[in-house]
Amino acid sequence: MEADAQRDGMKVSGRSRVMSMADDRGGAAGCGSVASCNASVRSTIVAAVATVVIAGSLLAACASTTTASLPPQPAAESIRDVRRNVAITRDALVGALRNADYVLIGEVHDNPAHHRIQRELLAELTGGKRIALAMEQFDRENQSSIDQALATKATTPDALADAGRFNRNGWNWAFYRPLVEIAIERRLPIVALNLSRDRTREIARRGLDAIGAQAVATMGLDGQWSDEQQAIQAREIEDGHCGQLAASAVPRMIDVQRARDATMADALVTRAEGGAIAFAGNGHVRTDVGVPVYLARREPRRRIVSVGLLEIDPPAEGASVHSTRPPFDYVWSTVAPARPDPCAGLVMPQRK
Fold it and tell me: What local confidence, expressed as pLDDT, does residue 230 receive?
């Protein structure tokens, strides 16, 4: 599996660690670690070794993706209202999300449980409500082709993926096909969120100047950005490259990450005026440095809700897996699939 699409999610030993994956588009991809939790991030360059393929089970579940009620929540999973610091039920979460204009749901890209949750929430939240499905897995440059495919009565999820140039080598299509199927069945708009590889590489070379001053201003990239936010992104990027990234490369990679988050926000503002449920890596839906930062600048009167889908290990005796405050409005914790340490044996070339 290619490095450019596998990011945001590897479990590392000892605790829940939501990871930023390095992106060969030239920047750090969406990371989901929490600095206050001392969470580590690891690189997507070796994510292929951890790919979990559950195509059969996901595709078999497609027939039930549009049911009106959610199945029972697995006992090993928990949901937390971060602001109130209390555990809540799945029904309570759904109720809160129904009242939002923009719902941003994260993921660890190779975790099957996270894709099950996404599928269930999309089915529940779009029952009787026509909001857009927004996806990191499609590049904005392909939006018109996606629109044309949706306008075709006989379109299928696979045909739409082809039209939108979905990268099946980089993303596990079986994880995302059920979302596209729901959108087609319910005639939902599909919004492409991501920057292309060429665009991110250009930003990596030239910084935000590659976007142009007008776009920087329009997308809110010229707004307040604190030293703390810069430090958070730097830490995520460095950890996401297994601590092997040259320090001189970090600032431009932060530019790439910020540009991607601002671009995703811009796509929601310009293409999903009626509201949207967006799916992206946990790092992109963080409330402190991710898409919500730029979306709130553009749409200050609209309600934006972020849900982090995190992974947990069994906590140490007497410890609480919810003892810190993650940068999301809600956290849905699941068990992590077994996977090797992606940093084991990794030697990265040093950029000058």
Answer: 97
Distance, CA of 150 to CA of 191 (rounded, Å): 11
Residue 6 has a CB neighbour count (10 Å cut-off) of 28
Alpha carbons within 13 A on the beta-carbon side of 165: 12
48: tokens are 């292929």
Q: Token match 């941003």: residue?
A: 104
- Report the candidate in 276, 236, 265 with the shortest Cα–Cα distance to residue 101: 276
pLDDT along the chain (352 residues), means of 10: 36 32 38 35 35 34 41 81 96 97 97 98 93 98 98 96 97 98 97 96 96 96 96 92 90 97 98 97 97 98 98 56 78 93 80 50
Structure tokens at 173: 């299509």
How many Å apart are CA 340 and CA 128, to the nearest integer? Answer: 42
Determine contact, residues 147/45, Cβ cutoff 8 Å: no
Yes or no: say if 280 and 104 are a contact pair by the CB < 8 Å rule.
yes
Rounded distance between C-alpha atoms, residue 81 and residue 103, angstroms: 15
Please give the pLDDT value at position 70.
61
Q: What is the model's pLDDT at position 68?
A: 43
Residue 296 sits at the vertex; the CA angle it makes with 290 and 297, to the nearest 5 degrees, is 100
CATH classification of 22-335 is 1.20.1560.10, yes or no? no
User: How far separated are the first and last CA of the chain, in Å rounded?
Assistant: 27
**Contact 277/94 with Cβ under 8 angstroms?**
no
Lookup result for tokens 């402190």:
288
pLDDT for the residue 152: 94
| Token digits of residue 82 | 């971060």
